[in-house]
Design goal:
The chain has three domains: 140 residues, no CATH class; 82 residues, Immunoglobulins (Immunoglobulin-like, Sandwich); 168 residues, no CATH class. Strands 5, 7, 10, 12, 13 and 14 form a six-stranded mixed β-sheet that branches. Strands 6-11-8-9 form a four-stranded antiparallel β-sheet, with no helix packed on it. Helix 6 packs across helix 7. The chain is built from eight helices and 23 strands. The protein starts with 9 loop residues before the first strand and ends with a helix. Strand 8 and strand 9 form a beta hairpin. By secondary structure, the chain is α+β, with helices and mostly antiparallel strands.
Length: 429
Amino acid sequence: MKKPKKPLLFTLCGVLVAAVICGCALLLGNPEAASSVVSAGLQHLADDAYLAASAVAGQEVSFTPEWFDNALAGDTVTAVTVTRLPAATEGALKLGYGNVQVGQVIPRESLSFLRFIPHNGVENSSFSFVPTTSSGSAGYALSCRLLVRDTVNCCPQNTKTATAVSTHEGLSLTGNLIAEDPEGDPLHFEICTYPENGTLTLNATTGAFTYTPTAGFSGEDSFSWRVQDAAGAFAPTAEVSVTVRESTGYTFADMVGHAAHTHALRVSEKGLLGGEKMGGKHYFHPHRALNRAAFVAILLEAAGIEVPPADNTGYTDDADIPAGMKGAIKYAKEQGWLGEDTAFRPNEAITRAEAARIAAAALGLSAPGYHETVEDHGAIPVDVADALYAIYEGGYISTLADGTLSPGGVLSRGDAAKFFARVLDHRGA
């Protein structure tokens, strides 16, 4: 079912509650104050949401109308009804100097006086409320965690996600929203505006998303997203543009349901990495390996790097390098992108680490300050870690099914299709 463009999104102090859309916008929270809850079923769907406000130890957690407005992503809070108070042993929820009562309605003009005063040593508490906007009451309660930290919390960063992606008519696109938190806190991803011409699903914990264009649609689409950390800080909203290309008139029979299917069609259309036709069907062979010579030659072509032809690359195994690829390989060698080896080994399968090192150098990519975001983080060699994380965070490769980057693993043709399609997207080709 197509998502509405502007679902209600509740955030408090920077931590947003992802709206669940199922024909209507649902807000997530905990079942409090039965008289305020419109639907027990909708309230049940709200139970897993995360909403938080935080302050530094020795300070109170305070609120303003603007914080509530920001949570609603486009609507205006007119009042909140408190449905559950923090435990008395943890602190007091105050409106000015008076204690807030269960069932109390706090109008917009008084929200700046709302504050939580924690007792000494308390690090966690919570309260629940039902928001009312100019559109009416939400109809189900939201639970807000109240956190006390030793230091000032910094905002997560979301600058490394691809801002332009593409797919083909009738084919889904998978990708990852990438963000980092300075303190290493768990992150919560969410969609702010949904695409107009397709559906979008998101894993709020990992940032993995799937975009499926509406049947028969080709053209431009987009969605926006943001990310917040566990303590209440969030990154600015970012937009991803989606180009849905017209159908090629064929698909690859061996890539039905494969995440790289649209990428394989893209690089095949561009003449970068083709398939073959047998028995009236097209095949891409996504699990086969790509050799080192082909990777370098295709990478430079995809990146729009023009190179002069060459008769000799200077490698000791130059005779093994295909004549049409010598210009690209010699150029990459002269630029220092291929390392110091005297032999190139053109026919060997290229590993994911080798591909990362070459591509990061050729494309000028880096990944400073990365965190332990993949399962094999500790096993990634130091000399390739920056390059490998750079192409991962840039959307050029994905983790394997087990969550690893597998630097020593072979870069398959399916992997390479995504790799080169991302290069094309980056340069708008």
